[in-house]
From TrEMBL:
Residues 16-114, 123-214 form the SUEL-type lectin domain. It holds the Pfam family SUEL_Lectin. One of its GO terms (molecular function) is carbohydrate binding. Keywords: Lectin, Repeat. The keyword Metal-binding does not apply. Signal peptide: none annotated. The keyword Cell inner membrane does not apply. The gene is Eva1c_0. This is EVA1C protein. It comes from the Eukaryota. PANTHER family: PROTEIN EVA-1.
Length: 214
């Protein structure tokens, strides 16, 4: 169980140069959740993915180290999101227009492994959040947010007191929820600044959103 949870909570990353395969894989009962992606080149080839062109040609063509493609995240979502594993060959044709022909590029991808069955619970500021599992099962926390998200939350509508709609989140919410609830059959915690600190401007209403599985 501990090994399964450590794999679920871990942030994975992978990279592949042009002409190589990228391969993402998640453990049993979890699926890929893409966090972010980059395709292009922002470091010189002697640091990552050496040029495949002959040295004489490489010296004639100035390498572009400010080259990126805006479609890489959507491509990774299309290919891999919600699958147990995925693999494909990396080349510029996959991503549409080549922004820097003659420069060798690479793909970087960051992902998590999300449990196939998970629950989501929300508590508005100063309310108590209770989590529980059936007998012989224990709580595994997947993610936790305390603060205010850009789109707001339907269960905790914000009163607009002239405050700007900005996003602010506690950096310690996940660690705190793991410490309080991880491996227990049930747990409770107040969605309060006393527990989580205040990541927002004073007066901004916050909420606690926890995703977990049993």
């Amino acid at each position: 169980f501990a090994g399964y949870i450590s794999q679920v909570l871990k942030n994975y990353s992978d990279h592949a140069c042009d002409g190589e395969y990228v391969s993402l894989r998640c453990p049993h009962r979890t699926t890929i959740s893409i966090q972010s992606s980059f395709y292009g080149r922002i470091v010189p080839s002697h640091q990552l993915c050496p040029s495949r062109y002959p040295h004489s040609y490489a010296t004639l063509i100035k390498e572009d180290v400010a080259c990126s493609v805006g479609t890489s995240l959507q491509k990774m979502l299309d290919e891999c999101q919600d699958r147990r594993s995925c693999q494909f060959l990396v080349n510029s044709r996959l991503f549409g227009m080549d922004p820097c022909p003659g420069t060798g590029k690479y793909l970087l991808v960051w992902y998590k492994c999300r449990p196939n069955e998970y629950k989501s619970k929300v508590a508005c500021e100063d309310d108590k959040l209770r989590l529980s599992c059936k007998k012989s099962m224990v709580i595994a926390i997947y993610s936790a947010i305390f603060g205010r998200t850009q789109g707001g939350n339907l269960e905790c509508p914000y009163q607009n007191l002239g405050m700007p709609m900005i996003e602010c989140q506690s950096a310690t919410a996940l660690q705190l929820m793991i410490k309080r609830c991880h491996g227990k059959r049930s747990c409770s915690i107040y969605a309060s600044t006393y527990e989580f600190g205040d990541p927002c401007y004073p007066g901004i209403q916050k909420h606690l959103n926890v995703i977990y599985t049993c």
